[in-house]
Amino acid sequence: MILYEYPLHERVRTLLRLEHLFRRVDVLQQSAQAEHHHFALITLFELMDVATRQDLKSETLKELERQRQGFIAFRGNPAVAESALDAVLEETERAFAALSQQQGRIGQSLQENEWLMAIRSRANIPGGTCEFDLPAYYAWQHLPQQQRQTDLLRWMSVFAPLASSVELLLRLLRDAGSTRKLQAVNGAYQQQLTGKTYQLLRLRIDGALGLVPEITGHRLMVSVRFMQPDAEWRMTPSADDVPFEMTLCA
User: Fold this and answer.
1) What is the DSSP-derived secondary structure letter of residue 16?
2) What is the pLDDT of residues 52-77, one digit of tens each?
3) How many CB atoms lie within 10 A of CB 225?
4) How much is the mean pLDDT over the chain?
5) Contacts of 176 (CB under 8 A, 6+ apart)
6) Less CB within 10 Å around the terminal CB: N or C of the chain?
7) Of 174, 11, 162, 8, which is closest to residue 100 (Cα–Cα)?
8) Rounded CA gap, 200 and 11, in Å?
């Protein structure tokens, strides 16, 4: 099964992009190859572009606090396991404390590293990080693997409080959804959204079907159209009835 996720709220869109970048850099920095460490740095620069947004830190702290207050409201509810509630409350409070204690905008300290900023400015130019453009960077790529990994971990550590918060908020959101088995008649499905304000749509489809879902949605409606790629990956609408699973997370 292939899982597709579609944000129904701009804040969730940002969280998903951050999660995508954190996962990518984690895989790349574990590699022994200097080329992979280069792309880990490129991903770090992408993280800086997203994470240094002025309102990101305050918005994330507000959402953590909203979640905390929501969990506190479950105190004394006989249907809720106190131990599980205490564990998630502690995790939420720990994430809030770590992020709130971080001074300034997230990743701001990296912008003061002239060497990193020189690489960042050249990385936007096709082939701009060649050895004749950035000899010091070329020398860094020839350092022992462990030293490069230590540097990458040190630079990425400034994002650690944000990464923990993103992971927690998305996990809580995903856990709040309920899954339904559905069928797209003639390759299309549409649903009105009433009763709740949903923030995330999760769709699973059997990869063996060879179909790609095109999802559109907002707070009032979601629509899915299953597309069939040809050999050149040009998409045409499928006319088949397509079984799939959908989870709406509020």
Assistant:
1) H
2) 787 899 999 999 999 999 888 888 77
3) 20
4) 93
5) 249, 250
6) N
7) 162
8) 10
Conformational region of residue 233, where left means phi above 0, alpha means psi within -120 to 50, and beta covers everything else: left
Angle between helices 114-123 and 34-51 (to 10 degrees): 100
Scanning the structure block, which residue is given the tokens 């549409």?
Answer: 190
Q: What residues contact residue 66 under an 8 Å CB cut-off, 6+ apart? A: none
- Give the residue range(s) of CATH 2.60.440.10 domains in the chain: 177-249
High-pLDDT (> 90) share of the chain, %: 81
Provide CATH code, domain 9-171. 1.10.3900.10
Instruction: Kindly list the strands in the beta sheet with 242-249, ordered across the sheet, starting from the edge strand earlier in the chain.
Output: 2-7, 200-205, 242-249, 178-184
Distance CA 160, CA 156 (A): 7
Domain(s) labelled CATH 1.10.3900.10 in the chain stretch across: 9-171
- What does CATH list as the number for 177-249? 2.60.440.10
Distance CA 208, CA 112 (A): 49
pTM: 0.91
Residue with tokens 């971990």: 153
SS3 85: helix
